């Protein structure tokens, strides 16, 4: 079965890293079509996944665009739509990975008429989308998608609450290869030395810098912790949130935290850095759809504290496999950080339990199997009864 994946982004967000894991599994019979150049393309090439950038025109549908603006932007994208329509004739199924790629892919698919699977990775709510864009996404998914995969039950529930058809949906969690998160204790000690972290209690935050990822909450929490507690902020502003980055630096200056906060920017060595932390803090201020960093911390055998909302509630059982704290609550976050520092054995036991849980519940093999089965069933359903009989064996 040949799969055409579509993603509008060229940067490495969680949606793209998750697509990479799935596309790697299908690399002999897929193409990833991107709508921007960037590090995502480079990484796909490194992993020998066929990739093509389909346009050099940027897709400027903003969060607060009106319905009309969104459509007029799409009108400018006519050549891209035609290109996808032509390309998709060579594929059995189209799988879109972002809202923008879903809208464009669905329009192209009016011509090519393939089963269209949308991998919905965002919580569709007013926190992240204008009413107009919400309506466009939900309507197009309802009318044009053969299936809507969601990355958590929370994402699924939000889709249905926004008017999405429940019967289209199926939850498939992100999957991970546990062996990719193993690091040696020597490497960890060296990294801590290089970063000047010896003798410190290190709290890591591994998210792109964006207001809703809540790095400011962690900075505030530091003011309620002893001076040996420091924060590593790993990640960059991927979608133009430079103003927030400036605010974070300003907050560090105002709170006198210069020697307690390190901004490391976007890093490719996340598992090594996580292993060098004493605790990983996830601080999103709006419900996180899934939260790859949470499972990654578990696989690095590091204790995790996270915001109690969205898909996170499906990942962590509080006090058993991590800790949950309310969104925007720097005092409660600081309390967990301090407890974790005072009781390292209890924290290590929680991290161990989380590791066991995550290596089974979120293994990439399970994710890829579910995904492949779903696609195979759709392609079979799409055939005429005669074709099913003659082609069934070949497709499966
Ligand atoms: N990540 C990374 N380098 C960084 C910061 C983050 O590779 O400097 C990765 C991180 O390991 C995770 C992904 O980016 O796999 C973020 O995914 P998540 O689902 O946590 O959040 P998203 O950014 O997709 O909302
Ligand atoms: C999106 C979500 C994130 C999720 C990722 C992978 O980027 O914001 O929560 O983990 O997709 O599905």
Automatic annotation (TrEMBL):
Where in this chain does the record put each Glycosyltransferase subfamily 4-like N-terminal domain?
Answer: 13-176
UniProt GO MF annotations = glycosyltransferase activity
Q: Which domain of life is it from?
A: Bacteria
Q: Which InterPro entries match?
A: Glyco_trans_1, Glyco_trans_4-like_N
Q: Which UniProt keywords apply?
A: Transferase
Question: Transferase: present as a keyword of the record?
Answer: yes
Which parts of the sequence belong to the Glycosyl transferase family domain? 189-356
Q: Which Gene3D superfamilies match?
A: Glycogen Phosphorylase B (3.40.50.2000)
Q: This chain belongs to which protein, by name?
A: Glycosyltransferase family 1 protein
**Native organism:** Phormidesmis priestleyi ULC007
